[in-house]
Amino acid sequence: METTKNYFFADMGVMFGRSMRHVFRSMDTIITVTIMPIAMMLLFVYVLGGAIQSGTDNYVNYLLPGILLIAVANSIGYVSFRLFTDVQRGIFERFHSMPIARSAALWGHVLTSLMSNVISVIVIILVALVMGFRSSAGVLSWLGVAGILGMFTLALTWIAVIPGLTAKSVDGASVIAYPIHFLPLISSAFVPTKSMPSAVRAFAENQPVTAIVEAIRSLLSGKPVVGIDIFVALAWCMGIALVGYAFAMRVYKKRT
Question: Which chain regions cross the lipid bilayer (predicted)?
Fold first, then answer.
């Protein structure tokens, strides 16, 4: 007889489909993850952009990388919320009483985070094109952007899994999103860091979002040499993802 391990990908696909249906049925999730970043982009480009000295004539080109990270950050609270809801309802215990792969339910939530952010990012980029965004990046550069955004999403998702499994309340599960929202605001996502006070500038230049934003911005500009930012960005994403995964899986095994 084949073991449940043989059906891991099939089980994970079922869990992924279940979680994605929850996303599509939640208007609040769609508004927060997609519409709010677009509204922020419209605000900064058409209301505040003229007063911001970004060093470029096309501010939407400068702004877009930060908006994409904002969209990813907005989605993280919902990962924790969906996991918390499943834990409180005893969904994991029910799944584990069935002949399915033990970690399939958790991976379903992780893949949902990745896919929902892919959809959100595509929609935001399409709106940015209408607003005047232009890029001379080639196929490899766009693949690099996709890879960095994917790793950033995966890193934050594994961090979000931890409170989703351990929180005692909905507020406790969702609180992880607040500090993550804060990081893009104190970075080079909206304005160059050179315009900031020295203490704020020191923090902004040495936190992960700035390195990731600069790497994406360089790739989208089609520069032949991206520089050290891309390696710093990858190091941050990989480091956060590995630490988050290790702790998340440890908590998941204890919880289940």
Answer: 30-52, 64-85, 106-133, 139-161, 173-191, 225-248
